[in-house]
Amino acid sequence: MRLFSDSIGRKVVMAITGLLMVLFVIGHLLGNFSIFAHGINAYAEKLHHLPALVWGNRVVMGLAVIVHVILAIQVTMENQAAKPTKYKVERYLKATFAGRTMIWTGLILGAFIVYHLLQFTIRKTPGLVLEQDALNRFDVFTMVVSQFKVGLIALLYVVAMGGLFLHLKHGIQSTFQTLGLSNGVMLPRYGALGKVLSSVFLVGFVAIPVTIFFGILK
Amino acid sequence: MSAHASDGTMNLKLIVWRQKGPNEPGKFETYEARNITPHHSFLEMMDVVNEDLIKEGKEPIVFDHDCREGICGMCSAVVNGVPHGGFKRTTLCQLHMRKFKDGDAIYIEPWRSRAFPIVKDLMVDRGALDKLIQAAGYISAHTGGVPDGNATPIGKRTADYAMDAAECIGCGACVAACPNGAAMLFAGAKISQYAELPQGQVEAPERVAAMINAMAENGFGNCTNHYECQAACPKGIDVKFIARMNREFVKALAQDKVGALAQSGK
Description:
- Chain A has eight helices and no strands.
- Chain A is mainly α.
């Protein structure tokens, strides 16, 4: 029984790392909501006074992403090799667009994470406004607004969050199935949970660039 | 094309995969299926076409079949993109031509998967499924002759669950339908059937480990939870049995690790 090489073992690892990332996304969304109450500077300040939490989270998430991506690429390549010839007529009874594009939405999200970190964590992308606010805290709000006023950047975020929606619409129910926590009764419920959660993420995250771009949030 | 519509018979266009042998290149050929009645099964329709081909001195289309009553698991062709044609709980032999209309074009392809090499035309070698059974589809303890009824009491729910899993006829439609060529539904059904019953529970951890190894060795892919297998299964085997196999894997892994720790602690 090998966790990192058996077919199901690797899927279990992907499910657990995926679940960790979903939990992070929930926390991230809740934190982001502080921007609508103009509380994001205070939120960021608070977080940075908790270095153990911030760094603990960075290490765990970093490892989770790397392991998840490596196994995903490996499993996908194996699966393509196991099905060398496709059917002339392509018709699916149950497989969804979201399910069939997991590797692509995953890679889009991977690239997005790199960009997002360069932008708002490492702060090295062009056009960033880096200032202190009136209370002498780092002004996260102004930095974020300076970016989302640019149409292309706002659009890029909307596209990436579309990727997140598709990835989790399939991924969340898939997690429970892979961990063996599913049965005939629970599987449709996990499916519904996946659809609801991924929709909440989509609306919640997209709201920020969209409201800033259209000048609703200022 | 609808000249026969008055007497209810149909003329159809078949686009069929023809391949002379395992290592020959194959291609699609188009045939006319004439005077097909709605009562013909799909295989009987193929028989009619083959008779015409033989009369014309051409080689008939090779396809697997046996019982023709939906229980043996031999018939196997992908019809219009779905194994067995994609009608609920229907094997190809139980698919009747009343599901088609006069003039329809029907694509007929063999099971496609690395684990199922093509023998000829629509016939594939499904021996890889037998390899899975050889690796993990049995109970090693000798249990003697047929036991007396109710000698080992089995609850109704347990018996039903095991029977649902045992309904698999081993046709391989799950593998053919899976975009990854995985045999998880087949394997999951076997693992669940044995893990649910007292005779099979003892060896459950070894069985799931052996099954996973055998799937990898015989060229099957990994599960990505599309559930296309369940939709294509002519016996309606549920993907809950894949979840059960995953659960048995996690349990076995935990036992394995705990066991190894206990060993090292001695």
